[in-house]
Amino acid sequence: xxxxxxxxxxxxxxxxxxxxxxxxxxxxxxxxxxxxxxxxxxxxxxxxxxxxxxxxxxxxxxxxxxxxxxxxxxxxxxxxxxxxxxxxxxxxxxxxxxxxxxxxxxx
Length: 107
Hints:
It is flat, with a radius of gyration of 18 Å. Helix content is 67%, strand content 0%. The protein has helices at residues 22-47, 50-70, 73-76, 84-104. The chain has one domain. It is mainly α.
């Protein structure tokens, strides 16, 4: 069966038929920023301590929750999995839990 155009490829042509739209570029940027934040938190954990790493990861999760509430789903790409409320509540709950664990863990 012959395919027509770019059906099934997941990207629609942008203005004047030039490649991918700008929105898909920002959709690939959001997960990258989350990964970079997690890597930065891990490096801080090695250099400074586990509490700082936990707080850094919690900050990434809370920022993800805020981004999920503020931005449209296409702008977040792979970070928009479920409904907006469920995604934000899950990220926020995990972030708060990580803060509690980081602050109450014995040294």
